[in-house]
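We store amino acids, tokens; thus:
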Amino acid sequence: MDLHKKPFDDGTQCKLEIFESYTEAWLPTFIMQDAGPICIFDIFAGPGYDKNGTAGSPIRLLRQVVKQSGYIFQRNVQVCIWLNEYMTEKYKFLVQACDTFIEEHEELSRLKKGQKLSVKITNCGIPEVFPQIIGHIQKYPSLVFLDQNGVKWCGDEYMAPLIKSSRTDVLVYFASSYVKRFASRDEFKRNISFDLSGVQNIKLQDVHRWVVQQLQKRIPQSCDFRLRPFTIKKEKNIYGIIFGASHIRAVDKFLNLAWSLNHINGEANFDIDADEEKTQLCMFEEKKLTKLEQFQHDLRDAVLSKNVRNNKEAYDFAIDHGHISNHADEVIRALKKEKKITFDDRSPKCNYNQVYKNKIVVEYHIL
């Protein structure tokens, strides 16, 4: 089914909002670092708009460049965008859509004229385009969007080089149902680098998280590359985004975006674990913990057992468990208020800026 022949549904809109919102957070980070050329790759770009004229990912990327145009000139940074669309008809529409959008926005025209913006659009398949882009990805700070047939990118042929790229953030979008439906086929197995035999026992809504767990197991412990899932429900189907990055600040940004979209679990555009039901008291059963409550319980135990001893360890604990720094901060504050611990500072300081940027260490002492 070609999703561009009809208006984007709610699930596709959610995916596009995540792509655009993460671009909005990602761009200024590297623009302000004077990092030299910074690159964005959208490998399954589509025609630019849906049937109703709703912007697809390429136009949304350009929208975010418009917002940052002043800083791009000020910092003298070059932004390189590489769009690829395999279908020839869509490729033609994509070229026209991007050319028109740039012409209609003076900031983009000025950036291109001043060689601060380059937009390359290609009409290739995966085997042809990947060798062309991987050298750039490994050399420059890069944001990579992989849409359609995204499961293929989970194989070693593609994932291994991306994992080795220290300044690369990746968002892969794929259909969970494809994994269950085609897992037993030899041609599918050849594209996947882990054992798929257990997937048939996994509920469809959990397949995406299961795939992320299998991939994370294959990443060497010496590698800082972290993966996080975000599951998207589209009517009766389940899709997912896999986010991957080596830098903890990138993971922090993605988690903050995910939790802003869903305050219940920060992991899906629906109540994937039925956490709302767990908030209801039951006279005859022990109350089940929500994802947030379970994290609070686990972090409390880790602090009181001295497995988490300071703000850095508390912050890392939150990130590794798919939570934002505020969640860790609330637990540490509560422990101090309960006189379970003490620390020599006004706040727990378990956030990225204090831990990694300012290098502040706050030790937590058990009372």
